[in-house]
Amino acid sequence: MLHDRVLVRADGAEGERRSSGGILIPATAQMSHRLAWAQVVAIGQNVRTVEIGDRVLYDPDDRAEIEVRGVDYVLLRERDIHAVAAERLGDSSGATGLYL
Q1: Three-class SS of residue 24?
Q2: Integer CA distances (angstroms), 41 to 64, 93, 100, in order
Q3: Cβ contacts of residue 19 below 8 Å, gap of 6+?
Q4: DSSP state letters, 25-38
Q5: Higher model confidence: residue 100 or residue 89?
Q6: Please, which residues bridge with residue 44 across strands?
Q7: Confidence band, pLDDT 50/70/90 cuts, at residue 21
Q8: Which of 1, 63, 75, 96 has the fewest CB atoms lying closer than 10 Å?
């Protein structure tokens, strides 16, 4: 990875979803703008706020998709990450482990 790039693997598929009430929402249903979570698998040398293994929140509309050995990944710039969730961030007392 070069510069400020972050390679992530998206959590879950973008197919059918089930609401908390049990209603099945088809993949073709129009949804409001929604951010997505992903797992960081590689980072460039200039990335400062995330580490490999962190979960990050990003905008699925601003992404570049790539496939490596049959696995789909998303390539982001560090500035395109909205939040970071990591165990290492939860070490302070009273912290949520979520860095916004």
Answers
A1: strand
A2: 15, 28, 20
A3: 25
A4: E-TTS------EEE
A5: 89
A6: none
A7: confident
A8: 96
DSSP sequence for 64-83: EEEEETTEEEEEEEGGGEEE
Beta-bridge partners for 40: 8
Cβ atoms of 35 and 82 closer than 8 Å: yes
Predicted TM-score (pTM) of this structure: 0.69
37-74 pLDDT tens trace: 899 999 999 888 888 988 999 888 777 888 888 888 99
- Structural tokens at position 45: 């040398």
Predicted pLDDT of residue 6: 92
Core vs surface per residue 67-84: b (16+ CB within 10 A) or e: eeeeeebbebebebbeeb
Q: Which tokens is 3 given?
A: 């510069």
